[in-house]
Amino acid sequence: MNLIYNVPDSFLLEETRNDYTISTEMKKVWAVQLDLLQVLFDVCNKHGLRIYAEGGTLLGAIRHKGYIPWDDDIDLTMMREDYDKLMELGDEFSHPYFLQNVYTDPHYSHRHAQLRNSETACWSWKEKGCVKQFNQGIFIDIFPSDNMPMNPRAFSRYYKKEGLTRQKFRLVSKFTNALPEGLYQTLRNKTKVLSDKCRYEAYENVLRSVKNGENGNVCEISFQHNYPILSKRLYGEPQWVEFEHIKMPIPQCPHDILRLQFGDNYMTPIHEDSVHGHMHFDTEHSYKEHLI
């Protein structure tokens, strides 16, 4: 593994937590992700960007002081303003680290960013190999939290517009990604109507169209159309807590957020599969060696 930050030798040992066995192989995946985290935090701290643990990562930080034992990913969120600033700092991540989004990586179609280690690989077990041509190194997710209209009527109009522009991006992306590479690149770079980059820019401009203050509401609507809407006041200045052998930034009111996302019983461990499904990881070889 090509990592900037070393991990304690004991961290890579197989162990059992909450009656679940975590293999050495998965610990190596965690080590790559924790390295990605620290590289990302270095850039965020350098530029004064706020970032927070989100979803299962936030739950793990509060309940386990680290990963949920059966989890295989890291989820983070940033307010839209800070997220956009981070997206302009891709050059600060040198190989093997790669800040990935629709603009920086052809054929990538997720509506959020990922930070990847390009000398590793991960893909779905449902596939025979890395069939998609974008960077498929081991990753961590970075989701933007976008402002939501406070007025119900304005929110209804916004919700419909967001859904329509999202659908346009998805249709264009699906269509153009199925074309021969030369034609895909021509449409991507020399047209507007059939360019995944242009369609995504139009979508993000809708997301940026809502302005509200520190007392407004936000939502990771680009991730899921029906994601919980939360008050910005729950986030505030990140507080740093233990997470495995590093520190993790979390919102000021994590329990309020977790209760809304996972229900009142969120502190009781329940073994669930990852939202990514069953993934294949290779911490020793680049995804390029697996492309078919």
Walk me through this protein's architecture.
With 292 residues, the protein is an alpha+beta fold. The protein folds into two domains: 9-148 and 210-289, no CATH class; 150-204. It has seven helices and 13 strands. It has helices at residues 24-47, 55-63, 80-87, 152-177, 181-190, 196-208, 254-262; strands at residues 15-17, 20-22, 52-53, 75-79, 97-100, 113-117, 121-124, 138-148, 217-219, 230-231, 239-243, 246-250, 279-282. The strands form four sheets. Strands 3, 4, 5, 6, 8, 9 and 10 form a seven-stranded mixed β-sheet that branches. It has a two-stranded antiparallel ribbon with strand order 1-2. Strands 7-13 form a two-stranded antiparallel sheet. α2 packs across α7 and α4 (152-177) runs antiparallel to α6 (196-208). The longest helix has 26 residues, at 152-177. The protein is globular.
Short structural description:
The chain is of the alpha+beta class.
Note the beta-strand portion: 15-25%
Largest sheet: 7 strands, mixed
State the domain count. 2
Unreliable segments of 5+ consecutive residues:
none
Helix content: 25-40%
How many E-type strands? 13
Class derived from helix and strand content: alpha+beta
Q: Count of helical segments?
A: 7
Order of helices and strands: EEHEHEHEEEEHHHEEEEHE
Alpha carbon gap, first and last residue = 23 Å
The residue-averaged pLDDT reads 94
Oligomer: single chain
